[in-house]
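Page 37, continued from 36.
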């Protein structure tokens, strides 16, 4: 008798599960179809979409929450967390994993995504001169951008921590972080602006001519060092981020440890290199790896300042041009995957550091 009752209960729960799944699928499919067919003004379409998103999401969670309540307490404790985080995980998988798999597929196809060409696109990335130039520039961004951002951020954090106007200094240094990178590029474009003739409206050339020197086309003639001028813009914006991170870490150094070093006769230089640096080492690596990821995928500054001309192309701008301008989907996808493969180990290392420190 108990076997028959248990079997009937399992069958009922299976029907309930199927019913909830089908009801949600049917409801959302119907709403999607209706929204696509309705000829409404843009404001009305937006309002319907917002209402559908709000009430549809509520109905989804309420129905699955009710379904979970039909099971035993043990099952509820096991499955209820997945009810609430499951849709978010599926949505993130759809938004992140599906594009990655599609890009990998396109990277093995020709320009029109019609014919399979194997590794030809990847071979081109590492053999064609223009693309090798792109990789060289990215390495310059990674090396110089990370070194100067981390170095200046650490130096300013140390100096500001010992000054009487710490908050004012930090606010000024951090201010560029509040500006978008497109706006930053436009601002600095006027700094490096060159005009043939006597009158110069670019700040750098105005200073140059003030001292009797000839104006320079900073971003067009000084190759490949014009990349360093673009990197300086990134350093200007990222130093504030590094400074805030380092300042927070430095304030966490125990005062007793610093006093012990001074009592033992260590000067401030030795205290900095032998006490402060080892204590904030994990923060230095975190800031450095974060900056490396940022420099690898740099796009806005280069696109606004030079458009990738004058040997300033980087992977992100080359990918954009190949994929969206030249419609070479194979090349563009291969560049995107190369960039992904370069960034993934750094992100993995960052996550390991976070877990090691107990921040995750």
């Amino acid at each position: 008798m108990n076997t028959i009752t248990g079997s009937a209960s399992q069958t009922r729960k299976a029907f309930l599960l199927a019913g909830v799944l089908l009801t949600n699928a049917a409801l959302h499919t119907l709403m999607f179809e209706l929204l696509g067919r309705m000829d409404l003004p843009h404001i009305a379409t937006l309002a319907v979409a917002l209402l559908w998103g709000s009430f549809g999401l509520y109905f989804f969670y309420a129905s699955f929450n009710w379904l979970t309540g039909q099971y035993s307490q043990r099952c509820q404790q096991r499955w209820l967390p997945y009810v609430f985080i499951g849709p978010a995980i599926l949505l993130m998988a759809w938004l992140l994993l599906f594009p990655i798999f599609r890009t990998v597929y396109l990277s093995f196809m020709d320009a029109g995504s019609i014919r399979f060409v194997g590794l030809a696109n990847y071979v081109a990335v590492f053999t064609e001169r223009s693309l090798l130039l792109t990789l060289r520039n990215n390495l310059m961004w990674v090396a110089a951008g990370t070194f100067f951002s981390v170095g200046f951020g650490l130096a300013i954090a140390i100096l500001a921590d010992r000054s009487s106007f710490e908050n004012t200094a930090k606010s000024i240094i951090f201010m560029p972080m509040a500006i978008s990178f497109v706006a930053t590029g436009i601002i600095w474009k006027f700094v490096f602006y060159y005009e043939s003739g006597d009158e110069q409206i670019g700040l750098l050339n105005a200073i140059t001519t003030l001292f009797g020197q000839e104006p320079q086309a900073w971003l067009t003639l000084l190759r490949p060092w014009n990349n360093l001028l673009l990197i300086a813009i990134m350093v200007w914006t990222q130093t504030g981020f590094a400074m805030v991170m380092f300042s927070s870490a430095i304030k966490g150094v125990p005062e007793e440890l610093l006093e012990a070093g001074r009592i033992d006769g260590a000067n401030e230089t030795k205290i900095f290199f032998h006490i402060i640096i080892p204590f904030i080492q994990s923060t230095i690596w975190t800031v450095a790896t974060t900056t490396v990821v940022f420099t690898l995928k740099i796009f806005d500054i280069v696109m606004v300042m030079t458009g990738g001309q004058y040997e300033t192309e980087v992977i992100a701008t080359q990918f954009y041009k190949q994929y969206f301008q030249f419609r070479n989907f194979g090349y563009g996808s291969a560049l995107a995957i190369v960039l992904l493969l370069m960034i993934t180990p750094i992100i993995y290392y960052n996550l390991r550091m976070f877990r090691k420190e107990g921040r995750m």
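DSSP finds 15 helices and no strands in the chain. Flag for discussion at group meeting. The first helix runs from residue 2 to 37.
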